[in-house]
Each structure stands twice: as structure tokens, then as C-alpha cells.
Design a protein that fits this description.
- It is built from 23 helices and eight strands.
- The protein is an alpha+beta fold.
- The longest helix is centred in the middle third of the chain and has 36 residues.
- The N and C termini lie far apart (64 Å).
Length: 611
């Protein structure tokens, strides 16, 4: 009797599901290409298809806001008739591309993660690979290269199964780009060699299927690889070959890339006037594309050209525009939101797995014992993974914390350089300061991804950083960065960016409104089996009169406290730090001020061979 009831229920469910899927088919007799008739149809399925196609046309015309509204309407109509997941695949993919072009990376990742299991369950290999590479692109834009290359590697075996087609050529070009971006992030030439293998395969496939666009893109990637090897004439040859194939109407995005690359190569060959001409053309096409990351790249190119040409006013203008865009794209809040979204996605997949196992246990009750053991094993595995995942999240949050000072410091330094350029009529001095700031900016951004640096690297960074700060506050303070002779500065490692927040606090707050010369000393020494770092200043110290300073140093302390906590867990050490006012008479340099003491383990890291 029970089996009969179950059979009737199953048949009823199958009937309802079949009817729902039938309702998802558009049965209008009018042409499926007549979008107006489709969108005005009383049939929700036809209306959904009409709005989806209209959204794609608007997206291709760069009308992103209108495209978003039409996509929302298409999705609402699909949901009205309870269509299967497969109906949503292209809608989700278009949503992801739309938000990626608008630099709204959290939403882009959200829709890619919705589309991925649909493609996997349906066995759609081309779609699956494309979605994985789009996810990798989002993490590239967020400057998280390790996650980007992880998703790229997942796509490689999927693409290898595809037969020659335009789609395969396009995917191979995307794989090339992701590997080349990773090479630029980790500076390991083996990844550039890997990128060259894939781009050559992409060029072969594109020629087989006679696809001009993918041939142009492949030649553009070849140019980038040879430029990285400083083979500039060969790189220019690839660009010129691609430009001959370009059509101004069909290949606007390709013109954008090619003009920018040619401008960069001409700059490397010291042809600055021609380089700026191509860079301006690149900026024009980037603005036509309405894609913020490309516009930022164009301003960055103009900055490099004008800086090398000695046109410092133009260089500062371009750098300011670039930073305005890039800081809005890679803010801590956006990166944190994206990481939280990925975490929720992985959690949802795990929950779905557990739910399916529970359903199987109910259906196949004879296998209850085996199912129970399986669930216990999975629960143990998930717990272990959860612990590791939590540690990775904490480490990621610390990288984000290290990046929080970037926008504040960059804009202060830019303002100082602009003021210095107006105040001083000394081109060489301006160029030297621009060079220092460029190096500081690069080191600061790279430190976000470095776990450790040598004491020597940290001392060099602090000297450059404090030099730039002296441009902002001339004659306000002096400083010294020293180490005992028994400290192996080129072999001893410390966590990256652990000192800068306290140095900044001394300058910004400790020395504010004092009527005597400020003095900042940073010293490295050995304390038994530990490395002792002392940061002393003769500022106004901690107290009610320095409320702003106390709040700032409290934030810095929390960031350092969390990092030392992770360090102690990972290395099983007893690192610590303290912050106190300098007692009167305790130091010859001052009767006021603050002393920060950081005790770290002596860390020696052997250099690793390239993979």
C-alpha cells in the first residue's frame, strides 16, 4: 500500500513538472526574431525570451543600465512559470558579464557561481569552462592572483576535450591571458612560457575555423609575451600584423588593446611623442568601451610615458586619474564582499551534498549503516576543511587590513607631489620624487600579497617611505632606521608591513602641533632567540591630549595583534608587542613620546626553486 501511494505521488510530481516545462516553451507563431511581438506576448515564456534577447543587444551596444532592467524582467518571467535551471543559464551568464563590465565584482561573481552548477549538471563543457575563466577574471581584477589561477587550472582539462571551434579558440585565448596575468603577479617566467603554449594553440584553432577576431587576440597575447622578454621589435611585429586584420567597426576592443600596447613599446624605444599619440587613441577607445579597468590602464600608460619624457605635470594628472579609478575598483569592502560570497557558495554546495545524502538514506533504508558511516566521514572532513577555511579567511582579512592604508597614503602623497611641483621649479627633483613614490606604491601594493620580507627589504622600504613623508612635512622631523651588526638583515624575515602603521602614527599624530623638532628612531636587534623591533618617537605621547593619536594607534594595534596571533598559530611561537609612553629620563632622546616594542621569532626562509 505504501509503495502504491509513493508511486502515485511520484507520477503526480512528474506530471506537474512536465506541465511546468511545457509552459517554458514559446509557442508563438510569430517570428522568434521579432522582439517587439515577443516582449508584448501574453505568454510569459515568449516574453522572457524577448526581453533576454533585447538585453543582449543592449549589452552589445554598451547600454548597461537598460540591459540590466531587461534582464531582470526576463528573469521574473522565467520564475513565474517555474522553468528548469537550464533556462536561467544564459541569463545568469549575461548578468555576470554585465556586472563585470560595470566593475561591480560582487554581483558578477554571484551570478557566475549560480551559473556554474547548471553548466556542470547539464554537461555543457564549453559553458563550464567559460564560467570558470570569468570567475578567474573577477579575482584578477580584485588582485587575488592565487584564486584566479586556481579557477583557470580547473578550466584547462575541460577546454582540452573540445573540438576545434570558435568557442575553443576564444577559451584558449582567455586561458593565455589568465596565465600571463599570473606571470606578471608572481614574476615567474615559466608561467609566461605556459601562456605561450596556449596562445599558439589558440592561433592554430582560430586559423582552422577562419575566425579573424580570435586571431587578432592571439597575436595581441603573443605581443605581450615577447614584450615581457624585452624583444620589442618582435612584439611590434605581432601588433602590426594584428592591426592589418582589424576592422574599425567590428574590433573596437582589439583596437583599444593594440593601440595601448604599441604606445607602451614605443615608450620603451624612447619614441615618446608617438607613444603618447597611441596612448591617447587607446584612452579614447577605452572611454568608448565604458569599462573602468581599461580606462585606468590607459591613464597608467600615459603616466609612464610622460614621466619618462619629463612632462611631470601631465604625469601627475594621469596618475591621479588612474588612482581615482583603481581605488574604487579594489576597495577593501568590495574584496571582502566577494570573498564572503564565495564562502557562502561553497557552504551552500556542502549543504546541498549533505541534503542529498540524507534523502538517499531515506530512500535506500537497507544501506542506512553504510550511509551513516559516510556521513560521519564527510562531517569530519567538512570540519577539517572548515577549520582550514577559517584560517585562510583570517589570513585574507589580514591582507586586506594591510591594504587599508593604501588609498589614504596614496592620495596624501599625490597631494604632496602636486604641491611640491607647484612650489619647486626643479625638474630633476620632481622626477626623483615621482620615482620614489612609484617604487613605494608598487612595494606597498605587492606587500599586500607577501607574507614575509627580509629585514633589509623592510629597512629599504621604511627609508623610502619616510623620505616621501618628509616631502609632506619638510623640517618637521628627522629619522633613523638601524640594525645591530649581529642581525642578518638579508636572511632574517619578518611579516610584511608590520612597522609602517606605527611610523605613520608618529608622523601624522605624535608630531602634530609640537613646537620642537620631531625625532623617529626604528631599530632592529636580537633579544636571545627573538628579534626585537623598537619604534621610538619624541612626540606628545599617549594621553587625553592625543585622543586622535590614541584612536589611530588602537586601530594599528588591532591589526598587528591579529597578525601576531596568526603567526603564533602557524609557527607555534610566542611573538608579542607592547605600546607605552617613554618614562621621563628613560631615554636621552626625549622626555616625551611613545615606544613600541615588537618581539618576533627569528625567521629564516630558504629561497624556493621555480615550479
Amino acid at each position: 500500500m505504501k509503495q502504491q501511494v509513493l508511486l502515485v505521488a511520484a507520477l503526480a510530481w512528474l506530471s506537474v513538472k512536465t506541465d511546468a516545462q511545457a509552459n517554458c516553451d514559446c509557442t508563438e507563431k510569430s517570428s522568434p526574431d521579432n522582439l517587439q511581438l515577443l516582449m508584448q506576448s501574453a505568454n510569459p515564456a515568449c516574453k522572457a525570451i524577448g526581453y533576454e534577447k533585447a538585453a543582449k543587444e543592449l549589452f552589445d551596444r554598451k547600454s548597461f543600465d537598460s540591459s540590466e532592467l531587461f534582464l531582470q524582467t526576463a528573469l521574473e518571467n522565467y520564475k513565474k512559470i517555474s522553468c528548469s535551471e537550464s533556462k536561467y543559464l544564459q541569463v545568469y551568464k549575461l548578468f555576470s558579464r554585465l556586472y563585470e563590465n560595470k566593475a561591480e565584482f560582487q554581483q558578477s561573481l554571484e551570478y557566475s557561481l549560480k551559473a556554474l552548477p547548471i553548466a556542470e549538471n547539464a554537461g555543457l563543457h564549453t559553458e563550464r569552462a567559460d564560467i570558470l575563466l570569468n570567475i578567474a577574471q573577477v579575482f584578477n581584477r580584485l588582485r587575488q592572483p592565487d584564486k584566479a589561477i586556481l579557477y583557470t587550472r580547473q578550466s584547462v582539462p575541460v577546454v582540452a576535450k573540445l573540438s576545434s571551434s570558435t568557442a575553443k579558440a576564444e577559451l584558449l585565448n582567455k586561458i593565455t591571458a589568465r596565465y600571463f596575468f599570473y606571470f606578471q603577479d608572481v614574476d615567474d617566467p615559466t608561467y609566461a612560457d605556459t601562456a605561450e603554449v596556449y596562445v599558439k594553440e589558440a592561433l592554430i584553432v582560430a586559423k582552422e575555423v577562419n575566425n579573424t577576431k580570435e586571431q587578432i587576440i592571439a597575436l595581441t597575447r603573443m605581443n605581450a609575451i615577447y614584450e615581457s622578454r624585452k624583444e620589442y621589435q618582435k612584439a611590434l611585429g605581432f601588433i602590426d600584423e594584428a592591426l592589418v586584420m582589424c576592422n574599425p567597426v567590428e574590433h573596437k576592443r582589439q583596437f583599444t588593446t593594440l593601440y595601448g600596447d604599441k604606445g607602451y613599446l614605443l615608450m620603451k624605444l624612447n619614441n615618446f611623442s608617438e607613444a603618447r599619440r597611441f596612448a591617447d587613441s587607446c584612452l579614447f577607445y577605452c572611454q568608448e568601451e565604458k569599462y573602468p579597468p581599461l580606462i585606468a590602464n590607459a591613464y597608467s600608460l600615459i603616466f609612464e610615458i610622460e614621466n619618462k619624457a619629463g612632462n611631470y605635470k601631465e604625469a601627475v594628472w594621469a596618475l591621479t586619474n588612474e588612482k581615482t579609478i583603481t581605488d574604487s575598483l579594489s576597495s577593501t569592502e568590495k574584496a571582502k564582499a566577494v570573498n564572503e560570497l564565495e564562502k557562502k557558495y561553497n557552504q551552500a554546495r556542502n549543504e546541498k551534498t549533505i541534503k542529498e545524502l540524507a534523502q538517499q538514506k531515506e530512500i535506500y533504508f537497507l544501506l542506512a549503516a553504510a550511509g551513516l558511516l559516510g556521513l560521519i566521514a564527510i562531517a569530519f572532513f567538512l570540519r577539517q576543511q572548515s577549520l582550514k577555511h577559517k584560517q585562510r579567511i583570517m589570513e585574507t582579512e589580514q591582507r586586506l587590513n594591510r591594504a587599508r592604508m593604501n588609498p589614504h597614503f596614496f592620495f596624501n602623497a599625490l597631494a604632496s607631489l602636486q604641491s611640491f611641483a607647484v612650489r619647486e621649479n626643479d625638474g630633476e627633483a620632481i622626477a626623483a620624487n615621482l620615482s620614489k613614490f612609484s617604487h613605494i606604491m608598487r612595494e606597498t601594493l605587492e606587500s599586500t600579497y607577501k607574507e614575509y620580507v627580509t629585514v633589509e627589504q623592510e629597512m629599504d622600504f621604511l627609508n623610502e617611505y619616510l623620505d616621501v613623508q618628509k616631502i609632506r612635512f619638510p623640517k618637521k622631523f628627522s629619522y633613523s632606521v638601524t640594525a645591530d651588526k649581529n642581525v642578518e638583515v638579508d636572511e632574517t624575515h619578518i611579516p610584511a608591513m608590520i612597522i609602517q602603521p606605527f611610523a605613520e602614527n608618529s608622523i601624522e599624530h605624535g608630531f602634530s602641533n609640537i613646537d620642537y623638532p620631531g625625532l623617529l628612531n626604528i631599530h632592529f636587534s636580537k633579544n636571545g632567540k627573538q628579534l626585537l623591533i623598537e619604534i621610538k618617537d619624541n612626540g606628545k605621547g599617549l594621553g587625553s591630549a592625543a585622543k586622535e593619536s590614541n584612536e589611530h594607534i588602537s586601530r594599528a594595534s588591532q591589526i598587528i595583534r591579529d597578525r601576531i596571533y596568526l603567526l603564533n598559530i602557524k609557527l607555534k611561537t610566542k611573538a608579542s608587542f607592547s605600546i607605552d609612553n617613554i618614562p621621563p629620563g628613560a631615554d636621552s632622546m626625549t622626555t616625551n613620546g611613545v615606544i613600541v616594542k615588537i618581539n618576533l621569532p627569528l625567521i629564516y626562509i630558504e629561497s624556493k626553486s621555480t615550479p
